[in-house]
């Protein structure tokens, strides 16, 4: 059977790569990248998908930005470009070695690329969230995504991931996931049988 890259909440992990303060002024579309990653993190909590967070040399590059909403996660400090350091591999083993990874963060041509290569070599299916991944340069970002697709990673989007994970408006967490991810106005309130007044004021 051909691999088609279908996402599932089972055997899946969310990888959050190096979204730190010192990168803020230099990364292309940094605010949007972190916002989309935060939506994925919120939804992962609702759906029971475990998240793993890393920080690249935090002493020099600072902590993870607060707007990601990952204060409760243990940040694995690293100096290598790949996220697949010993501590992360131990955490993956403790999770039963998930078969699929949803990957977001920075930088696309460095840490995201090295992480993807390592995961693919281990037989893990990698889903790179294109609107939650970036680099300092848009050129580096675009060519990195193209290169990683050539290597066998699947390219997707934040909304694509969330809708694939729930798949059906009858999913027991459908409304909760879309509320957390602020997708109501993209999909339509009538479709979900929700009233405008039922939405959080932040939407």
From TrEMBL:
<dbReference type="Pfam" id="PF00857">
    <property type="entry name" value="Isochorismatase"/>
</dbReference>
<feature type="domain" description="Isochorismatase-like">
    <location>
        <begin position="12"/>
        <end position="159"/>
    </location>
</feature>
<protein>
    <submittedName>
        <fullName>Isochorismatase domain containing 2</fullName>
    </submittedName>
</protein>
<dbReference type="InterPro" id="IPR036380">
    <property type="entry name" value="Isochorismatase-like_sf"/>
</dbReference>
<comment type="similarity">
    <text>Belongs to the isochorismatase family.</text>
</comment>
<dbReference type="InterPro" id="IPR050993">
    <property type="entry name" value="Isochorismatase_domain"/>
</dbReference>
<dbReference type="InterPro" id="IPR000868">
    <property type="entry name" value="Isochorismatase-like_dom"/>
</dbReference>
